Amino acid sequence: MADTVELHRDMNFTMIRNWVGASNREEFFAACDENGILVWNDFWAGDAIFPPDNDVFLAIAADTVVRYRHHPSIAVWCATNESDPPAAMDAGLRALLAREQPELWYQGNSAGGVVTGHGPYSWIDPARYFDGDTYSIGSYGFHTEIGLPTVPVAESMRHLAGDQPAWPIGPVWFNHDWCTRGGQNPDTYRAAIEDRFGTASSLEDFCAKAQLVNYESMRAIFEAYNAALWNDASGVLLWMSHPAHHSTVWQTYDYDLDTNGSFHGARKGCEPLHVQARLSDWQVHAVNQTAQPLDGATVHAELLDLRGRSLGAPLTAPLSVPASSVSAAFTVPFTAALPPLHLLRLRLVGHDGTELSHNVYWRYRTPADARELARTPTDVDLRTGPARRAGDRSEAVVTVRNTGRAVTAGLRLSARDARTDQRVLPLRCSENYLWLLPGETAAVTVSWPSRALSSGRPRFVAEGLNLPRRTT
């Protein structure tokens, strides 16, 4: 339980929705307390399915509130999922909370009243997240459910499949939520992957390509809310962030606790201090999700081709961002003179020259233009410092250098036990899915629970869409 809540903290999430009260364990609430994450806590009704005995329901609700109300993480009690509670239930819960915990917000319907919901749950063009009409009532609001299919990395898919064929897509996928007639509509997700990167030749190929779609989409969900912050947008919760079992959809990490493109896209979009571009018109914003103003900062933007060559003069704008706010810097239009595929690199720099955030967009005129990423190979060199233990965790610094002639297209770092070759999980990286230009170097701090590496000897792996697998 602690591991899963820490993964939410590492994504910079500030709230978890405990859907229909699915977790009733003390460890869950304690972990949220310890990690500074608020809890939206549902009761156990919804979808127009209600308990036959309201008095018994209210008695159990009272026990639940009294049992857990000492946890500072609980911020919302919600009566029902996506439906209005019956009048007697609503009145009883309101009276109960007014008596036992009057300081907290009571929400009757998880997708009604002052909040919105109802998805979308399938893949959509990431630019559409920046249009309020995409959401259920034609505006952002506080949105309680949104998500998309998320295929994990290949090794997790093989664990999902067990002794069944993991490729091609078939029965074992269908048994793990790849439901072609469900709200997840995985056919559009698969089409998005193949339109951008071509038809997959293997499970490894499909999963590698899927991670860039995962990253791009999940980052866009949160950046759309950043761009409209307090201008109709006040918050967004995922359906879902945590997988209840091995799955192919609606998750930010998999059941093995291995993170993927969705995790790191969400983490990027939720940075407390963040620089981003609005995909609908390429306006660049600086976002400050902290309680302190950001004064004297500068936003930098540069356009580059896949070889790292400049495509024009860089843009720079000084700005300040009040606490819990967003400020526009400038627009970087996708003009007809630009190559059909290129990079937009953004940096947010503090008044003292410290980089506070960086962000890379691979901009393509048509989805098929993105296929050039896989056709532009590069290579990297890995170096690792000594592994050091501090308490119950260990860490090392992995230095990655792009030794090739093209950008690394979402380079993924992972770790394995040098003795057993088993994955080291859950793994925490200071950054991941790296876009390094030729000659660039990144020093990534990688840490793990010491219990997850019995040999004490880590081996680090770098892989990506356009580079061979390299290990230390």
From TrEMBL:
- Which one GO biological process term can you cite for this protein? carbohydrate metabolic process
Q: Please, which domain of life does this record's source organism belong to?
A: Bacteria
**Boundaries of each Exo-beta-D-glucosaminidase Ig-fold domain copy?**
359-466
Example of a GO MF term: hydrolase activity, hydrolyzing O-glycosyl compounds
Classification via Pfam families: Ig_GlcNase
InterPro entries reported in the protein's UniProt record: Beta-gal/glucu_dom_sf (IPR036156), EBDG/EBM (IPR043534), GH (IPR017853), Ig-like_fold (IPR013783), Ig_GlcNase (IPR041351)
Record's PANTHER family? Answer: MANNOSYLGLYCOPROTEIN ENDO-BETA-MANNOSIDASE
Can you name this protein? Exo-beta-D-glucosaminidase Ig-fold domain-containing protein
What organism is recorded for this protein? Amycolatopsis saalfeldensis
